[in-house]
Amino acid sequence: MKARGASGAAAPIWSAAILLLTTLLWAVPAVRAENGPTIVVKEFENPPNNLNYFRGTNVAIFQEAYGRTIWKSTDGGTSWSKVDGIEHDKAAALVMHEYDSNRAYILSAGNVHWKTHDRGETWQTFSTEAYTSDFPDTIGRWMSFHATDPNKILFTGMECDGLFCEELVMYTEDGFQEKAKFLRGHTQACWWAKSSPLFTTGNEEWDDRRVLCIVRGGVFSPQEENRLLISDKYFSKTDGVVQEYEPNLTGDGPMQGVISIVEVKKYLLVAAAARNTAEMALFVTSDTQTWHRAVFPQDHPLLKASYTVLESTNYSIQIDVKTSRRLSKPMGTLLTSNSNGTYFTRNVEHTNRNMESYVDFEKVSGIQGIFLVNQVENWEEVEEEGKDKKIRTRITFDDGRTFEPAKAGDEEIHLHSVTELNNVGPVFSSPAPGLVMGNGNLGKHLKGYWESRLYISDDAGRTWIEGPEGPHKYEFGDQGSILLAIRDSKEANVTEIEYSLDHGKNWETAKLPNDLSVCPWTLTTTQDSSSLKFILTARKGSRASPTGFYVISIDFEGLHEDTCKEDDMEDWFARVDDDGKPSCVMGHTQKYHRRKKDSKCFIKQEFKDVRPEMTPCECGNADFECDFNFVADGDECKPAAPVRVPEGACKADNPDETFKGPSSWRLIPGNECKRTEGDQKDKQKEWKCSDAQGSPSTPGDDKVGHVFTFFKGGFNRFEKHYLERGESNNEADGTIIARPYKSDRDTYGVGDVFITHNHGKNWTKAKFPGDEGIYSIVTHPYVKDMAFFLTQGKKVFYTVDRGRHFDSFEARDPPDTSSSRPPLSFHPDSRDWLIWHGKKCNGGDCYMEASLSTDRGDSWETIQRYVEKCEFTGSSAYKFRNSTQIVCLARKREDNEEKNPLQLLYSDEFPKYKLSVALEDVSNFATMAEFIVVATENKTEKTLNALASVNGKDYAPARFPYNFEVPHTNAYTVLDSSTHAVNLFVVTEEERGRRYGSILKSNSNGTSYVLSIPGVNCDDSYYVDFEKMLGLEGVVLVNTVENRDSDSEPKRLQTRISHNDGAAWGFLPPPERDLDGNPFSCHSETGDEACALHIHGYTERVDHGKTYSSKSAIGIMFGIGNVGPILGDLKDADTFMTTDAGLSWKMVKKGSWTWSFGDQGSIVVLAQRNTQSKSVSYSLDRGDTWENYVFSDKDVTITDITTERSGASRNFILWGHQKEKLFTVNLDFSGLATEQCKDDEDRDKSDYELWLPTHPLQPNNCLFGHKNYYLRKKKDRKCYNGDKLTHLYRVEDCECTRQDFECDYNFEMHNHGQCKLVEGLKPLDPVQVCRENPDEFEYYEPSGFRRIPLTTCKGGFEPDKALTPHPCPGHEEEFERARGVSGVTIFFAVVAPIGFASLAGWWVYRNWRSKFGQIRLGEQNGLDSESPWVKYPVVAVSAVVAVVGTLPLVVGGLWRSASSALGRARGGGNGGGRYSWLRGSSQRRYTTRSSFARGRGDYSIVDEDEGELLGDDSDDEM
Question: Which of 832, 1127, 1211, 1498 could crosslink 1053 through cysteines, CB 3.0-4.6 Å?
Answer without folding.
Answer: 1127
